[in-house]
Amino acid sequence: MFVSSLPDVRPGRLSTDEYALRFSDANPRMTQPQAVLEAERCLYCFDAPCASACPTHIDVPSFIKRISDGNLRGAARTILESNPLGGMCARVCPTEVLCEQVCVRNTQEGKPVAIGRLQRHATDAALEDKGQPLFSRAAFSGKRVAIVGAGPAGLACAHTLARLGHDVVIFDAHPKAGGLNEYGLARYKNPDNFAQREVQWLLSMGGIEIRTGWKLETLAQLDALHQDYHAIFLGLGLASTQALGVSGDNLRGVQDAVDFIATLRQTSDLATLPIGRRVVVIGGGMTAVDAAVQSKLLGADEVYMVYRRGPEAMSASRVEQEWAQTHGVVIQHWLAPVEIIANQVEHKHVGAVRFARQALVNGKLTPTGETEVIEADMVLKAIGQQLGNPLLAQAGFKLEGGRIATDAVGLTSLPGVWAGGDCHAGGLDLTVQAVAHGKQSARAIHACLCNSQ
């Protein structure tokens, strides 16, 4: 049996300066000379594979050429024309498995053009520019569209519709707009309140109103949206987390990683945020990486990230896995949780997690009979999220795998209602893909509204 002492979960493990240093920008913006030098590595390929690999199909060679020419405004316009959340995507997109993976410089030099960092260089300059707006609205169409969810899909849909002349009202349950960009990303990826600055830039064009503290919970609400608006877009995200399904899940010190990250993101003074001395994060995705790395940055001595399969099956990219390891996170594979064990001294608090070792037998994940116990003062669950809104089935939406089924342009089984982002069946659960869904549905809604006139 494991040895245990009183749980050690407390705030203020570091100095104020150390918190600021550890949670500073993980990948700072390029200087102008750095950006120009990097831009000049681009070959400006015809039919560029990087543009095809981007879910929003940004014309990558075009914006990089403008950076090389010193035209940051033109570069930003090219990016934001395709991706209105291009600033955030430049910070959080796994470019190493999207645009940069197919860059021809990989073949020639073994190193792609730093597309993501160049994109950030241009979009940051645009958001800081207080001059003439990049985009303007078309004449008011007389049509109003309701969007439920102020995450990346909803914001992209709203921006596209507003440019086309429609008035948009976004309803969101949270106090702030932004969705996962505001509440679900590691603090070091999104410092200096960038998510809110990007939202304010989107709103500055006009035609978009955001109403917070509103959650879709009743059929009466849905009926009211149908009556008051000409179309509805659902960008609900995934509101609930999957259950771990083991005993001890309700012990103190056990919490969902998404809640941990949201709390961290909204805490102004990190010295007030308690963290365990030993932290176990269960899961293999980017949420698990963000929770594990930030636990370490908050001052945890030992952080384990535990996944039931091998490294190649993890949804966190190779770069994210390496990022965790370079920050002192120990990644354990082939271990599935079977029990969360209470602390032997303080029996209502977590003390350890027992895992069963796994192996693939005829392609099926199977316990080997061996177990391993890892001590923990805190356990963070990052095993995936689900839609978790019973109203959708009651309203008659067709669901696939617990998410909303749509056609190719996002139209649901209910007339006049589109959906996109993480609540949409299928997809990669990436910010950039949510943006692509929002834009695609906006264009379909626009075509539908024009045809109904």
What layout of secondary structure does this protein have?
Blueprint: E1 9-10, H1 16-22, H2 32-39, H3 49-53, H4 60-68, H5 72-82, H6 86-92, H7 105-109, H8 115-128, E2 144-148, H9 152-163, E3 167-172, H10 180-183, H11 194-203, E4 208-212, H12 219-228, E5 231-234, E6 240-241, E7 254-256, H13 257-266, E8 275-276, E9 278-282, H14 286-297, E10 302-306, H15 318-326, E11 330-332, E12 335-342, E13 350-361, E14 364-375, E15 378-381, E16 385-386, H16 390-395, E17 399-400, E18 403-404, E19 417-419, H17 431-451
Parallel strand pairs: 2-3, 2-5, 3-4, 5-19, 7-15, 9-10, 9-15, 10-11
Antiparallel strand pairs: 1-8, 6-16, 12-13, 13-14, 17-18
Structural account:
By secondary structure, this protein is of the alpha/beta class. Helices cover 35% and strands 19% of the residues. It has 3 domains: 32-128, Fumarate Reductase Iron-sulfur Protein, Chain B, domain 2, CATH 1.10.1060; 144-239 and 387-451, FAD/NAD(P)-binding domain (3-Layer(bba) Sandwich), CATH 3.50.50.60; 243-381, FAD/NAD(P)-binding domain, CATH 3.50.50. It contains 17 helices and 19 strands. The strands form 6 sheets. A 5-stranded parallel β-sheet has the order 4-3-2-5-19, sandwiched between helices. Strands 7-15-9-10-11 form a 5-stranded parallel β-sheet. A 3-stranded antiparallel β-sheet has the order 12-13-14, with no helix packed on it.
